[in-house]
Design goal:
It is a single chain. Helix 3 packs across helix 4. This protein has 9 helices and 11 strands. It is an alpha+beta fold and 272 residues long. The strands form 2 sheets. The protein has a 6-stranded mixed sheet with strand order 1-2-3-6-7-11. A 5-stranded antiparallel sheet has the order 4-5-8-9-10, with no helix packed on it.
Length: 272
Amino acid sequence: MDWLPESLLEMHFHRAIIKNYEKKFGAKFLRLLKPSTQKEAWVGFDQGWIKSDLPEQELFKQLSSAVSTSKTKLSKFYFGEFLQFKTVEKITRRSSNLPSGFSTPYYRSALSLKPNKTSHISQHETLCRLTKIRGSSVYYACPMIFNQDELWNEPNLKLLRFVDVRTAPSGWLTNEQHHLAFQSPTTRVPVWCSDPVEGRAFSEEERWQSENHPTQLSGEQVISLIDNIAEIFSNQSNEVLIQRDIFPRLVRYLPTSMCLYEFADELSIFGE
């Protein structure tokens, strides 16, 4: 659908996605990575939301290197969500491409398996390699919008389906056409075609509840984390902690400005 390109759909949802990340993690806890067209060829995604101590250029360099070499760990990279928007087409006629068990109408997104002239790796393969990096989650963001007039409406994140790229099958040939197929706009089980393999799709709210996301710590978990850190610090010097990269791994999901307060009964303080 040339009249409804992926870039326009991404723009439509962009501000709503930012507000949702701010709501879940706090303002500016995550950084936005928006690659240029040239850089996107090396990393595959439209936008990334990351927690890392690396400068932007160094992070792009490490991400592209990890894709090229199938590396699974980046230094000073703690968490990242990478989104690639895909246009969804409503299919109303039966054809040989109809997935087994599907009926019309159904919904379909074309996947890009043609090797890029710059990186020599297809967009889909690039995204699959990103899923191997520790701390990363990679999704095809599929907006269930089929009319350009809907873009005048307030962005509704309920119209987005996030398909977990980790569920994609391996071994696809680059000279074949492949798609993501949805029986309905709200399905949780899309199908990777042409050889049907079930995948996983989430709504925006369901995505926050998936195992891919860092979860909010309970009071008991916070106390346990403090106790563990205190024990490690009491047994190791700061130099050893830094060399072994222990401390960053313990607090990888905590904001750098986090403060802990202890409240006590005023009467007990003054001994009354």
